[in-house]
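testing teh design pipeline on a random one, pls ignore if ur not involved
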């Protein structure tokens, strides 16, 4: 075949993000057919993805945003294997591209996210496979969504932790951000004790009883002690009952009521990369 033009290599590189050498090889393999060269790079990604399927993708970026009406909040976690890749500007741009598109297209779950088409008309699933081939690491992506009357998002510095919180109505932005930061800092497992699963409650009671017994507490006091420790667990691990991070003398619930008696948190989501 005729010599591969540098302009074609550059065009393929811009469209796919692949390296110059990989683009040239793909064009040679496809006899200069541009669309076929794109497929060659995709197949390369599929092979690498299959080889690295058992790897752990614990690094990455976690980012969040709301729509313009602030009625929907979205967290995107784009994961990779190393922090070197996670800090790459192209990788961060891909995460932002997925986030913006997921908000604009009202994506509602992870299956829809995988099938969502990006600006280059590739689906997210195809893009992840393609970038796996280019980067050479296992990649994965997931989404969390909240729909509410008012939603705030928060990204902790470093892009490893993000939260979204839904409210029953709009309040001052700094007040709503306080709650989003509370969720980030204190990692509650539920909004209130009524939302804690029965399985978790029974596990905590069992642990508390065993601890009390090991401490030599009387058998007849074990249940009372266990329920007392369960209440402490609720105070430490449910959002509304936690001490407010900016004033430990009041709970989050009390802080909200100080702003407006009818102001309520409806739900929250939190994603954090493993340390």
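output:
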């Amino acid at each position: 075949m005729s010599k591969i033009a540098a302009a074609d290599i550059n065009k393929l590189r811009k469209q796919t993000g692949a390296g110059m050498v990989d683009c040239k090889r793909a064009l040679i393999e496809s006899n200069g057919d541009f669309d076929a060269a794109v497929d060659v790079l995709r197949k390369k990604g599929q092979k690498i993805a299959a080889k690295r399927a058992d790897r752990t993708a614990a690094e990455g970026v976690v980012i969040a945003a709301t729509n313009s009406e602030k009625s929907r909040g979205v967290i995107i976690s784009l994961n990779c294997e190393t922090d070197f890749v996670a800090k790459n500007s192209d990788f961060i741009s891909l995460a932002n591209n997925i986030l913006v598109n997921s908000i604009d297209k009202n994506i509602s779950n992870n299956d829809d996210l995988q099938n969502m088409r990006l600006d280059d008309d590739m689906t997210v699933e195809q893009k992840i496979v393609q970038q796996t081939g280019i980067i050479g690491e296992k990649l994965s992506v997931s989404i969390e969504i909240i729909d509410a009357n008012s939603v705030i998002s928060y990204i902790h510095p470093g892009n490893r932790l993000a939260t979204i919180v839904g409210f029953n109505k709009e309040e001052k932005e700094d007040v709503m951000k306080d709650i989003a930061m509370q969720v980030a800092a204190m990692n509650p497992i539920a909004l209130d004790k009524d939302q804690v699963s029965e399985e978790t409650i029974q596990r905590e009671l069992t642990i508390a009883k065993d601890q009390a017994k090991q401490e030599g507490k009387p058998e007849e006091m074990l249940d009372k002690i266990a329920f007392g420790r369960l209440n402490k667990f609720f105070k430490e691990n449910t959002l509304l009952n936690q001490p407010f991070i900016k004033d430990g003398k009041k709970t989050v619930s009390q802080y909200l009521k100080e702003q407006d008696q009818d102001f309520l948190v409806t739900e929250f989501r939190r994603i954090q990369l493993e340390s």
